[in-house]
Each structure stands twice: as C-alpha cells, then as structure tokens.
Amino acid sequence: MKIEDRVKEVFGTVCPLPKDCDRRLELKSLGLDSLDMVDLVQNLEEEFDIKIDDKIAPKWQILGEIFDYVQTNAKQES
C-alpha cells in the first residue's frame, strides 16, 4: 500500500476524509481541533514508526504536507 493511502487510512481513524480528497485538501476545512491533531500525530507515529516533533504538526495546512513529512521520515520497508 502506498504511503499516501496509509496516511489517509490513519487519518480516517481521527476524522473522515472526503472520498475525492487529494494533496491540496486544507486541513482547516475538516474542523480538526487540537485534540484531533494530537490523536492524528500519535497514530501516524505508531503506524510509520516515526517521531513527529511537536513544532511540526501545527504547521501542516494541507494533506500533502503530511504525505511529504511521512514519506521523508518513514523507515523504508524491505
């Protein structure tokens, strides 16, 4: 499964995503609050075995920024 699909799956545990969403989806349009973001970060860290700095996640404005961060920081699977 592609990283983008896995991120969307993890995201869905916190907040449902529109079926036709893409990289340009603005996170603010989803109405996430700070607790939702904490849940999302924890779920992403667990799914991808990464550590997300507390200063990074609040800067995410679009879904593509999350994809890019995870792609860059996730351990490569063999």
What does this structure look like?
The protein has three helices and no strands. It has 78 residues and is mainly alpha-helical.
- Counting copies of identical and different chains, the oligomeric state is single chain
How many DSSP helices? 3
Give the DSSP E fraction (strand runs of 2 or more residues): under 5%
**Derived structural class:** mainly alpha
Through-space gap between termini: 13 Å
The topology string of helices and strands comes to: HHH
Number of strands: 0
Global shape: globular
Radius of gyration: 12 Å
| Mean of pLDDT | 92
What about the largest sheet? none
Percent helix among the residues? 40-55%
Ranges where pLDDT stays below 50 over 5 or more residues in a row are none
Secondary structure topology:
Layout: H1 3-12, H2 34-48, H3 63-73
Helix pairs in contact: 1-2
Summarize the structure.
The protein has helices spanning 3-12, 34-48, 63-73. By secondary structure, the protein is mainly alpha-helical.
Annotation keywords:
mainly alpha
